[in-house]
Here is the input.
Amino acid sequence: MGLGHFRHRTYTHLTTPVEPLTRLTQALGGPTLWVKRDDRTGLAGGGNKTRKLEYLVSEALEGGATALITCGAVQSNHCRLTAAAANREGLACHLVIREKIPGQYREEASGNNLLFRLLGATLHVVPPNTDLDAAMAKLAYEMAASGTLAHVVPMGGSNATGSLGYVRCAKEITQWSIDAGVSLSAVVCASSSGGTHAGLVAGLHPEGVDVVGISVDWDSEPQTEVVVALVEAVTQKLLAPSIADEAVVVHDDYVGPGYAQGTPQMAEAVRMFAQLEGILLDPVYTGKTAAGFIDLVRRGTWSKDDHVLFVHTGGSPALFEYAEQVLP
Here is the structure.
């Protein structure tokens, strides 16, 4: 079953461009490097969640929903884009925001939090260790009791439906490769809630392209399990052949102290992309992914004759809240 069987909304400016990373390639002296600009997908600041939301919001509308509920951290890109998609469709939006440490949430914070407020989302701040799925289910039940049908969007938009957005992205990458006459050796992406990574594996592995995931929060073993399960779910949804677990590759050397906690490698990567290519990364996702991308090049993972693509999943609004992590 092809992607054409699944309805979706249109929020993304397709197709997002692929650009050469000429100066970064020269600086690293490795393979030819490219970037897929999924930071330019549209909606409020762009990012990878836009692709997922095209399918997820379509599902919500087909079910008659009048509101969306989702969850994330205090600087969640996914929450920002869900609020924007809700506004595009005239839906209410409720965001369950979980603190990492007690008192972390600040109403006056900049970055994505400023945009939550500007977009008019209703925030429900919950303490660390809150079961987010349970909190969203409870909120949906309470809203239903008052006559509002809310559709719950999973964290990161990462389920089989949301992952279809990155199967579609994989098809764009494949077509670009054909049109440009470039044979890709690998595609490097962030791996967190797993939908982006899983969709790319489902779409690119059958084309013979390796997908390398850089974990931004978990050790490789649990992160691999998450992505493997999502790959299986999306291939089943597409009625496509199953993909071997070994196709899911996750590196966890770049997480540092934990999610959204800075590392010197991340800060260096953010500055290199900015100062060599004029491209803004974020410290939570793309910065750590770029740290892995750069380190793997330096370690000789690929030859100089190879072509490697970095998927820029967006998130630059968070820079304005994490300045101390990226500036020397």
In short: The chain has two domains: 3-47+159-326, 49-157.
